[in-house]
């Protein structure tokens, strides 16, 4: 199968889905009101609440939800064959992920910018809110600690990316200052910044930086320490100074990277060398249900609900922008995952090379293998248009690190909100303030990341997939109850919700059995706790459904009488 044909057909499918199904879902279920006062205007403080141009906010939202996950997930899931991975990304993003993200953003906006956990309190009940907060805290703790390790590992494996990545920070700050304080033209400023970044990528090849082992003699732990200092500072700064302009610039960087890959496919027209379906993999779990857990962010991800209701909603200028930002952002992430699938299946020189890389589950599941598959494949595409191999590899490497970085700082900011809500609900009001909640967010993640010589975060990482998809299912559950109470059709959210909760629970039960066989007490305990939280949340939702139904019946009886 030709990779170019798949890329073109998928892009066309996404355009049609956005125009038709996205418009239908937006208008039929959520009916955005252009005259509604969004939280960005109602609570404007130029720190978190900042009304933002929809194109800039799209860049922030897109890069925050994307990160490295839509690359590394597909890069391992293709071990089961490229067809299952491709179909899950396409149909999952259109019919599940995009609705999940759009619903979260719209409902959060109408609830005065409250997080999805606070929204759940209003929709389902107080107990449900705390259940949501616990799941979200656990998920973001894993994301922050592991992504710091991911970035540190990438810096060590690709030292040529260090200079351009860190130069993004002053560049983004300069763009934010020029646009918001000097009223500079945003297109000119962002394009100039983008050009500068590629110059930095070129320079970075000649000045690769190797971090000395300052912390405990380990370069990895030293990088982790530096990254958490950055995340702490970035999370405290007003959103327009660094987070927003950096994400906007990074979105441009991704567009360029995807265009370069597409041009490479246009020139080379590489054939997919991986098998279409490959269910007999040494050491691998069954592709059903684990495909739907392995590929998360490219199809649907609970992490997105935290971004949509944590940072994006506070910058939403108009409800009419929500479809482009949330539904469109999910489809754009889906397209990134398609490129990751193609890079990991058509970017290899031969079927033998692919088979060697994906010889077994253990061989393909390591961080180096996942990232390496994308970097190798993407650079192969890019070199097809005459770009030198070293520069092509640097472009692909910087692309991954940049997006991992945006996930790290956005996740830290959102985790501080979650901790603030938990602290306030438990009566610790001093800890709910911005500075202490951010400090707790960074400190807890740093402790987890540095346990066992920098492998601590990886201890709990096997739970990420199920926890992430569980949160997505629970978010769809909250959206469904909201629509039911608003007398809107629930078919379009309840089917994805049931599918996701079934697949997640199925995978979690299999994992628990494996953890029992391996006597892994920590993972057994956390898995059972997460499963109990899921069942409890579902029970709370059923109660909310019944109450809403009784209210409808009572209202109907009053009208009829």
Write the H/E string, N to C: HHHHHHHHHHHHHHHHHHHHHHH
The CATH class is identified as Mainly Alpha
Structural class: mainly alpha
Strand residue percentage: under 5%
CATH topology: Amino acid/polyamine transporter I
Radius of gyration: 23 Å
Q: Mean of residue pLDDT?
A: 89
Helix content: over 70%
If helices are DSSP runs of H or I spanning 4 or more residues, what is the number of helices? 23
Would you identify the regions where 5 or more consecutive residues have pLDDT less than 50? none
Largest sheet: none
Tell me the number of structural domains: 1
Indicate the CATH architecture. Answer: Up-down Bundle
Shape: globular
How far apart the termini lie comes to 66 Å
How would you concisely characterize the structure shown here?
The chain is an all-alpha fold and 561 residues long. 76% of the residues lie in helices and 0% in strands.
